[in-house]
Design brief:
By secondary structure, the chain is of the alpha/beta class. It contains 12 helices and 8 strands. The longest helix has 15 residues. Bound molecules: erythose-4-phosphate.
Length: 221
């Protein structure tokens, strides 16, 4: 399973990427707006840190403008993925980009029928929004399982399931169980995934016991 960070925070991206567990980045217009800097500069900085896929979303809602924006975005860096909304113009653009071998991420997916359309349009990734479905009283994780079951029946569907709108580590674990290819999460969720009180307590105990010996591993080398 791949892990993407859903963020445009350069410092957090750099820190977490250095650990070696971040495979890519997703952004959206809200995330980039919060950064409050020219988007081009942010995207170039992210792409310099992360060699994996970096999703950048179009803003237009009509097909001709969307295609123009998509082609500009695709030129920003070799690892940029064009993010498109799950609408008829979005999927029309997706189909054209996939024919040109440009990577795409179809976003705002809330149903299995939408996910089928994204796969038929040749999307590289489809992003079902787990947390936002939970917010309206629908189990978002069930959707991940449904999409997995459908895609697995059709070998010509090459779309990766990117579990998005992840709010906590349980979403990541359950998405993994459901067979999501990727989970994109805020930096805070990846940080939470490391944490367990027994890990902290065990480490404290090991350090205290070792200190009593007066030895150091480095000095003995
Ligand atoms: C994914 O690509 C989206 O940017 C993101 O996961 C949305 O998450 P949110 O519902 O927490 O805003």
């Amino acid at each position: 399973m791949q892990f993407f960070l859903d963020s445009a925070d350069i410092q957090q991206i750099a820190e977490l990427t250095a650990i070696g567990l971040v495979d890519g980045i997703t952004t959206n217009p809200t995330i980039l707006a919060k950064a409050n800097r020219p988007y081009l500069q942010i995207v170039k900085e992210i792409c310099a840190i992360v060699s994996g896929p970096v999703s950048v979303e179009v803003i237009a809602t009509d097909h001709p403008t969307m295609l123009k924006e998509a082609l500009i975005i695709a030129e920003l860096a070799d690892n940029v993925v064009v993010k498109l909304p799950l609408t008829p113009p979005g999927l029309q653009t997706c189909k054209e980009l996939s024919q040109r071998q440009i990577q795409t991420n179809v976003t705002l997916c809330f149903s299995a029928s939408q996910a089928i359309l994204a796969a038929k349009a040749g999307a590289t990734y489809v992003s079902p929004f787990v947390g936002r479905l939970d917010d309206v009283g629908q189990d978002g994780l069930v959707l991940i399982g449904e999409i997995r079951a459908i895609y697995d029946q059709y070998p010509d569907f090459n779309t990766n399931i990117l579990a998005a709108s992840i709010r906590h580590p349980i979403h990541v674990v359950e998405s993994a169980k459901m067979g999501a290819d990727v989970a994109t999460m805020p930096p805070s969720v990846l940080q939470q995934m490391f944490k367990h009180p027994l890990t902290d307590r065990g480490l404290e105990q090991f350090s205290a016991d070792w200190a009593k010996t007066g030895q150091t591993i480095l000095a003995a080398a």
